[in-house]
């Protein structure tokens, strides 16, 4: 289980890196290709035309490499039917050996038949991040609770984010009875590399948010210093046709609500 845990984490980091890098590289290479094309038009200066051809050929090869990197990142994020029960079972298996004896693990799946469109590996990674954070927030022990349930949200929900999120969702929540977070930490939670841990990466929550956003979902959290934290993920059970392709599109946007 330990080795599998490391493998899943490595793979997700790699896919995230490849996805992000290819997007940025593509944006750099496209103007370079255009520049090469324009240089080639200088027919009366053969040196410039040759330079133009060189720039364009290198740029084109670069783009091809980027394209295959993007396909790799996408390969890791295939859309499939995710079963809530299977997700939680896999999580429990991964957590084996990481839950200290002082932490009581409480897992509940209220609707075992529940399934939805998404990516099992990504969501598993996301839940795992949240659970490991929760465990680390309880050095003196406590209760780690993971609950999966189906919820119907009314049109008044999430009004603070200026969009109505009415509809059916699967809610995945991870809560702990740990140290909680002060305002200064809450404010910076999703900043890349923000960590309060020695040896922390500060990428865990960012990666979670990226995964949730690519599922068309949102993340909320509550935290009370000295009492604990609760992270909630809402994934829509049916995605609007317009963004159903986002999952396949290597959408690495970091939007989504905290
Ligand atoms: P890392 O775990 O590597 O620090 P994360 O992005 O996962 O990176 O978390 C960033 C920071 O958020 C953590 O360093 C910690 O201060 C805080 N944090 C995250 N989850 C919890 C939690 N359940 N309880 C208390 N603090 C948390």
TrEMBL record:
It comes from Dyella lipolytica. The lineage of its organism: Bacteria, Pseudomonadati, Pseudomonadota, Gammaproteobacteria, Lysobacterales. Residues 20-239 form the Histidine kinase domain. This is histidine kinase. The chain holds residues 142 to 399 of 527 of the full protein. Keywords: ATP-binding, Coiled coil, Kinase, Nucleotide-binding, Phosphoprotein, Transferase, Two-component regulatory system.
